[in-house]
Design a protein that fits this description.
With about 120 residues, this protein is mainly α. It has a domain of about 40 residues. About 50% of the residues lie in helices and about 0% in strands. It is flat and about 85 Å long. The two termini are about 40 Å apart. The model has no long low-confidence stretch (mean pLDDT about 75).
């Protein structure tokens, strides 16, 4: 008859408060994440200031070839090297086996016979 000794109105109040707390915090988290998304998209839409290139009078009349910057050159070199290594099968291959060496310590608490299950009688 332990069911009769439980204060059921108190149980339902605690359960309801816990449920309402979790749901309200989830709704609050949704609003915070939506607001964060709006803030991030608004900061990405800010116009980027264009940098005017200094050109000489002769460069205005002639069409100068577009030369990629050094960071683009580095990226292109890395991609070219990766493709070269991949197609020539020079890339590093990792072994597919894992070898774990088993070490059995002499004084491990797991094999300590003094406190074993067989020595419980006194």
């Amino acid at each position: 008859m332990t069911l009769l000794s439980i204060n059921w109105p108190h149980v339902w109040i605690v359960t309801g408060l816990g449920f309402l707390t979790v749901v309200s915090l989830l709704v609050f988290l949704i609003f915070v994440l939506k607001l964060l998304g709006i803030v991030i998209t608004n900061t990405e839409k800010t116009p980027v200031k264009s940098v005017a290139l200094e050109t000489s009078a002769s460069a205005k009349t002639e069409h100068a070839p577009l030369v990629p910057t050094s960071s683009v050159n580095d990226d292109l070199a890395a991609i070219a090297m990766a493709l070269h290594l991949y197609f020539n099968r020079i890339h590093d291959t990792e072994p597919t086996e894992i070898n774990i060496k088993s070490v059995e310590p002499d004084n491990s608490p797991w094999n300590f016979k003094l406190y074993g299950m067989n020595n419980l009688h006194r």
